[in-house]
């Protein structure tokens, strides 16, 4: 690859993921300037938050400020085609095309795609017709999984325990009462019983680099109780994914997906996330694909980037220039645990803004990534949703979790809410 110097980078998004990406770039001496659109009250410590109203204004800003490339963080702009618009304007972009982003943008597209290429996934039906869906639901043994086809910010999945509940939820989804227009088409799946893994691959269309397997914690409350959320914490690497399991995921899911995307003339460039359910079939553990995302997860991004020894900047150029195969990618042998601190009413409703106080943070423990925050008269305010992520780093998973919760103890605002058991599956026998 060519020598990389004096980079100006624009990051699209306003969450903890985008803060983590900006933080990784800010530690690279080759990065001169970082912009965020729109950013949050914490990202302006790493760079400059900008505000524009249209794609045309955004393109003018990028060109006039001689920005080297744009990193698109969230799923919505990718699915809506922002990367295509920017590329057509001659701007370098880290992120897949809108066609490739259908892997996340449409669960029906994803399920049909993986079925065509023999990728292991749960038995399913995608439909907009109640009678057809009812017949399939009755054929399944509960629990039963119903998914809205479109984007729902990670919350468009319902698991029910009876046929009656499934039919009631189906009716609500098809009528737009649950998840709005995103559920006018539904995907109904058999329930897979096992444990989940999050596996991320950086992809340049042909070559790919696997990052350490991680595990997200979706439920709001400790011991996996309460409703699903966007994620209340994560850790990596997980001992629940050994070398043999990672090889299975690579050969059965990642490789055939990238080959299939090439075959269907929508090669995948960027970050591909595979949500995996590991199921025990007799004495054999088998990975099944639950879902794809076409970007870094949040909060997984916050705990994966600190494990990179190879600079994120080099990886981005490896992807954008289709030269990942030329890079020698190194991963730290340490562990990371991220604990999300959310606002009082998350995920049920909005919360009143509250002032945040943070005591001195010992950087030997880790760091904090900011998400749902803004600045008011110089004071950092928790503005609702997931507010920040305390990222602990250690030589063992146990040490990393201890450090993460030590950081949690440094944060104070009224109504703060977090789980006290991140990493419990891996540590329960330690």
TrEMBL record:
Keywords: ATP-binding, Ligase, Membrane, Nucleotide-binding, Purine biosynthesis, Transmembrane, Transmembrane helix. Pathway: Purine metabolism; IMP biosynthesis via de novo pathway; N(1)-(5-phospho-D-ribosyl)glycinamide from 5-phospho-alpha-D-ribose 1-diphosphate: step 2/2. Its cofactor is Mg(2+); Mn(2+). The chain crosses the membrane at residues 268-289. The keyword Nucleotide-binding applies. GO terms for biological process: 'de novo' IMP biosynthetic process; purine nucleobase biosynthetic process. It catalyses: 5-phospho-beta-D-ribosylamine + glycine + ATP = N(1)-(5-phospho-beta-D-ribosyl)glycinamide + ADP + phosphate + H(+). It holds the Pfam family GARS_N. Its EC number is 6.3.4.13. Residues 111-321 form the ATP-grasp domain. The keyword Metal-binding does not apply. One of its GO terms (molecular function) is phosphoribosylamine-glycine ligase activity. InterPro entries: ATP-grasp, ATP_grasp_subdomain_1, PreATP-grasp_dom_sf, PRibGlycinamid_synth_ATP-grasp, PRibGlycinamide_synth, PRibGlycinamide_synth_C-dom, PRibGlycinamide_synth_C_sf, PRibGlycinamide_synth_CS. Belongs to the GARS family. HAMAP family: GARS (MF_00138). PANTHER family: PHOSPHORIBOSYLAMINE--GLYCINE LIGASE (PTHR43472), PHOSPHORIBOSYLAMINE--GLYCINE LIGASE, CHLOROPLASTIC (PTHR43472:SF1). This is Phosphoribosylamine--glycine ligase. It comes from Helicobacter cappadocius.
